[in-house]
Write a structure and sequence with these properties.
Elements (H helix, E strand, L loop, with lengths): L3 E6 L9 H9 L6 E6 L3 H8 L4 E9 L7 E5 L12 E2 L4 H12 L5 E7 L12 H21 L2
Parallel strand pairs: 1-2, 1-3, 3-6
Antiparallel strand pairs: 3-5, 4-6
């Protein structure tokens, strides 16, 4: 069994869509008993990244109909993600498709927890919007606390 993983997903050239990557970069130097990885959301790469792990935490921009900057915590199989259809990744079906495929292939992690932040702007351009930037420290703290608690 490989140690836990924190996977930041995003595209730095689509404003708030890069929030998962930015958050993961902040977590990289934090002492976590987990591998911190950066991904684009491509399903087969996600499956390779989380296969054989007891816990995987994904950070991504997701649309759930909330105010921009709202942080959502979704645990696959517990909170209905991704089957419930209440949350969508800004990368199309990347995360959802990867999870379903991994389950079908027996390559899903034991636990998949998604921290999603509601974006304000995912148009072309660099840099997070002020609203999402303001929510970033709280998101990073929540992920770090949860990973530390899960990896005891």
């Amino acid at each position: 069994m490989r140690r836990a993983a924190v996977i930041g997903i995003g595209n730095l050239f689509r404003h708030d869509d890069g929030v998962g990557l930015v958050a993961a970069e902040f977590l990289e130097p934090v002492r976590l008993d987990a591998d911190v990885l950066l991904e684009t959301g491509e399903p087969t790469r996600l499956i390779d990244a989380w296969e054989g792990r007891s816990v995987t935490v994904v950070i991504d921009a997701i649309r759930a109909g909330s105010d921009p900057g709202t942080v959502h915590r979704i645990e696959a199989g517990v909170d209905g993600f991704p089957d419930g259809g209440h949350y969508t990744s800004t990368h199309g079906a990347g995360l959802e498709a990867a999870f379903h495929l991994a389950c079908a292939l027996g390559r899903a992690p034991d636990r998949l927890i998604v921290y999603g932040i509601e974006p304000a702007d995912v148009s072309e351009g660099r840099g997070l919007t002020p609203t999402v930037s303001a929510a970033l420290p709280g998101l990073i703290d929540r992920v770090a606390q949860e990973v530390r608690a899960l990896c005891v």
